[in-house]
From TrEMBL:
InterPro entries: ApbE (IPR024932), ApbE-like_sf (IPR003374). This is FAD:protein FMN transferase. Magnesium. Can also use manganese. Its cofactor is Mg(2+); Mn(2+). Keywords: Cell inner membrane, Cell membrane, FAD, Flavoprotein, Lipoprotein, Magnesium, Membrane, Metal-binding, Transferase.
């Protein structure tokens, strides 16, 4: 009697086990199709629209954690949040300030690119950014004398970094990490996505796009490059992307017009004016968003000739330049993954420029 019951019970357990395995296989099958769980979120963070999508078992928690992470980074590195490391540094010049290790990492990378680009990228651009106020209601062309003063308060040699502290060594110098911090945040999102073994994900921090893996159906992500002509919301080209980042800096993102002239938010640290070099936008395509963000700003400042040379000398980093004439210059190796969608634009391969 007792034995039979035991047998029935164990049969039940076996049956349940088989069912469970069957269910697991079913969900596993779903992994190649539409049934794979996915999570999406849009939020306004770091002064821009952040969009994220992930597919996989832990998609939801990965997206949630990523958004939280971006918020944390913003709290440390915003210029305007009074408790941030950058605010503390900017408002206590000539004082060594202890700051978070993450802020050190971003400042170090910013200084690295400042040196590498001979100051075309400069994280001490804060005084000039404040003076121009582009993107705020007070944006206006400053007096030349004000520009001179702000220029004198710009220079990465006025920023000292130590293991866990930093110091602005000249009064009036201000740090602005707007040209690099979104790239850092994108790489931190990548770490979270990888921690949860998610194979397909996408994050866009206001034009700073990073894709992880390919799409669920095995095809590359199609990343649109925005038409840089003002007021046109359409996509002028598409990049096929697998495990890539595409970071665009353009004159159409933040700007104002005065006397028929456009003034945008990417400033030339040598002149104190918005970089004026016939470019509408520069997109950097590579594997690392942190570097690509600094580069997109720097290469925009350099302009086509110098910028193309710079990129052609780098390994695994590509660039797409769009000029005011709507000519599209691609660095070598990029043609294979870029498709122009709008016949107003003409592709010109970049090798000639670089040589
Ligand atoms: P976006 O932030 O619009 O995506 P960028 O990555 O090109 O575009 O960054 C532009 C921002 O970087 C500006 O809003 C400003 O905060 C800062 N910035 C402007 N000019 C420079 C420069 N020459 N070097 C470093 N940072 C800059
Ligand atoms: Mg940038």
């Amino acid at each position: 009697m007792f034995n039979t019951k035991k047998i029935i019970l164990s049969r039940k357990i076996i049956l349940m086990g088989i069912l469970l395995v069957f269910l697991l296989i079913l969900t596993a099958c779903g992994n190649n199709g539409e049934e794979m769980p996915q999570a999406k979120e849009n939020a306004f963070l770091m002064d821009t629209l952040v969009q994220m999508r992930a597919h996989g078992e832990n998609a939801e928690i990965a997206v949630e954690e990523s958004m939280e992470r971006i918020r944390e980074i913003e709290k440390l590195m915003s210029k305007t949040i009074e408790t941030s490391d950058i605010y503390k540094l900017n408002n206590n010049s000539k004082t060594e300030i202890e700051i978070d290790n993450e802020s050190i990492i971003v400042l170090e990378k910013a200084l690295k690119y400042a040196k590498l680009t001979d100051g075309d990228f400069d994280p001490t651009i804060g005084a000039l950014v404040e003076l121009w106020g582009i993107g705020t209601e007070d944006a206006a062309v400053p007096e030349q004398a004000e520009i001179e003063t702000a220029l004198a308060n710009t220079g990465y040699n006025h920023l000292d970094l130590a293991d866990n502290s930093a110091e602005i060594t000249k009064e009036g110098v201000k740090i602005d990490l707007g040209g690099i911090v979104k790239g850092y945040a994108a790489e931190e999102v990548k770490k979270i996505v990888q921690k949860y073994n998610i194979e397909h994900a996408f994050v866009n921090l206001g034009g700073n796009v990073l894709v992880i893996g390919d799409k669920v159906d095995g095809s590359p992500w199609k990343i649109g490059i925005q038409d840089p002509r003002q007021g046109r919301g359409n996509v002028m080209a598409v990049v096929d992307a697998v495990d890539l980042t595409i970071v665009t800096s353009g004159n159409y993102e933040r700007y104002f017009e005065e006397n028929g002239k456009l003034y945008h938010h990417i400033l030339d640290p040598k002149t104190g004016y918005p970089a004026d070099n016939n470019l509408l936008s520069v997109s950097i395509i590579s594997e690392n968003s942190f570097d690509a963000d600094a580069l997109s700003t720097a290469i925009y400042v350099m302009g086509l000739e110098k910028g193309m040379k710079f990129i052609e000398n780098m390994e695994n980093v590509y660039a797409m330049f769009i000029t005011e004439e709507l000519d599209v210059y691609l660095s070598s190796g990029l043609k294979e993954i870029v498709t122009i969608k709008d016949s107003d634009f003409n592709i010109i391969e970049g090798e000639e420029i670089a040589n």
